[in-house]
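Sequence, please.
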């Protein structure tokens, strides 16, 4: 991996909440969804600019990728070779408020 991936505390809490919620009905599905999200995030180490900027068409360094029903918001810090995972958001929800 060329870029180091850093999970913020809110993003880790989001992942845990998602897995816990799904596990109330189906533990196997919860594990699958959790690992799918993690695998998508790991791709960013080699391809940090794979996701479109957020909001779409902006010139900022905040981007998003999708894993199943979940939107993964992240920030690329090119100079430091870092990808910072900001939040994981269900696609059916309103737009998130992201940290500065």
């Amino acid at each position: 991996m060329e870029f180091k991936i850093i999970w913020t505390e809110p993003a880790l809490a989001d992942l845990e909440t998602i897995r816990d919620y799904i596990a109330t009905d189906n533990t196997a599905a919860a594990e699958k969804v959790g690992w799918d999200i993690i695998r998508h995030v790991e791709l960013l180490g080699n391809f940090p600019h794979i996701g479109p900027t957020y909001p779409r068409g902006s010139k900022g360094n905040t981007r998003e990728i999708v894993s199943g029903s979940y939107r993964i918001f992240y920030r690329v810090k090119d100079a430091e070779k870092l990808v910072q995972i900001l939040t994981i958001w269900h696609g059916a929800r309103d737009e998130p408020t992201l940290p500065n």
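The first strand starts at residue 4 and ends at 7.
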